Predict the 3D structure of the following.
Amino acid sequence: MSSERRVQQQSGYILHHRPFRDSSQILDIVTLDYGKVALVARGSRGSKSRLAGVLRPFLPLRVSWVAKSDLGTLTGAEAAGPPAGMVGDAMLSAYYVNELLLHFLHRYDPQPEIFKLYEEVINRLVSTDNVAACLRSFELEFLSLLGYAVNLNHEFANHDPLDAERNYEYRMEQGPVPVERSKGPLVFKGMVLSGIAEQRFDDPDILRAANRLLREIIAFHLGGKELNSRKVLMEVHRGRIAAAKSRESKP
């Protein structure tokens, strides 16, 4: 970026923030027209900063900045709507969505469809009773928009439709390949893969299979890098299971 760029009142959401110097912070923000941007918010961590209550995740913003390089300077920010009132699993899941965007999006690469998808999933997480189903739907659409669409409709070699009763191994960058075995981390029946493609996540078996499949696909595209938010979610769920077993064992 060779010349100075000034942007006014751009729709955006804060994905991540980290301290910078004494009272400032660096913000990673996903925006409608400019994609992911990194901005220094000078003095924003100070006790008298007028931005203290505005610069937070899951709050729709109108942001303004100036930039001569990849790292710009925030010049203004205001709320463009009410904050998303999320707690518990919904809040943890929203941080997981933020982490996905942080890792997969490139700076100043406009992705308006992904921005709209992000808005939709945040709003759905506020009201859904099935957080896991909401995330699986988001992951499928997100991967497709990134150009990593998950093939769940036909066999890799000959493009034949999947046989509902046949076992398939999902292979990265190929898709379903018929196998004789029924066990394996990425082995599924054809009917299960079809159920994931149709997002029939009201079926617990389909939902569990989708979680197993998409976890591996996302890890593959991240080069095996572990997401902190997913690790926290898994630890929370393991803690709940352990607590439930402990209660059941008591007389």
User: Anything to note?
Assistant: Residues 86 and 126 are 6 Å apart (CA to CA). The two ends are 68 Å apart (CA to CA). The chain has six helices and eight strands. Residues 5-79 form a domain with the OB fold (Dihydrolipoamide Acetyltransferase, E2P) fold (CATH 2.40.50.140).
